[in-house]
Description:
CATH class of the domain at 6-185: Alpha Beta
Radius of gyration: 18 Å
Oligomer: single chain
Structural class: alpha/beta
Helix content: 40-55%
Order of helices and strands: EEHEHEEHEEHHEHEHHHH
Strand order of the largest sheet: 1-2-3-4-6-9
Distance between the termini: 43 Å
CATH architecture of the domain at 6-185: Alpha-Beta Complex
Amino acid sequence: MSHEPIQIQPRCEGRVTEIVLGPPPGNLVTAALVEALSAEVRRHMRDAATRHVKAIVIRGDGRHFSFGASVQEHRPDTMRDVLPAFHRFIAELLACPVPTVAGISGLCLGGGFEIAMACSLLVAEEDARCGLPEIRLGVFPPVASVLLPLRMPEAAACRMVLSGAYVSATDLYRLGLVSRLAPVGGLVDAVDDMIAHDLLPSSATALRFANTAVRERLMRAFTERIPEAERLYMETVMHTRDAIEGTEAFLAKRPPVWEDR
């Protein structure tokens, strides 16, 4: 079992780069994982050696995609660095010209789900479940608040953000966020099949131009709106008593006691 935040696995004679999040079982979105992901995405944006790459696949090591952000890092003194770095990475992922594919199995939560929804295409096993549990920690998910209403019906996006409820991959497929469903245990084959039929036959150059063009609205909306969401989170929400209580209750494995302030 690897304890590195990510593993890089070139595939299809170098035409596909697979990024495996780790370490399992949770594949937590830590500062180290975000830094490693950011470096790899930037490499594909700037390094001429990657010009033949036609897809970047991101999936989790083991049964799950990701349990989300490390709650240990979710305190005001650490979040002042962690959250802006995460938002910079999401902006890089949205701007990456190479088509990105999130391969989702098991649980895909919080910051992990935000990484997946920022990818060009999502493939998920039928029993996978996605959710945004931040509200139950007394906070909210800034990235999802900006991107999710643009990628699926607004009413469904509002329910995910406001309730923290987990939503099945089959429901997300019906809502249009998930591009393709895979049978349980068949994620890798489904991702490979989609890439083989939809991406590999095309020019890597053409795919990069097309991916950039089709994602321009998402990238522009994120660039315009995430600074205000980040300010609201860092300057207001993180200083409420309920945000502090939510984190402490989670770490103590007890129900939170909300003061509504």
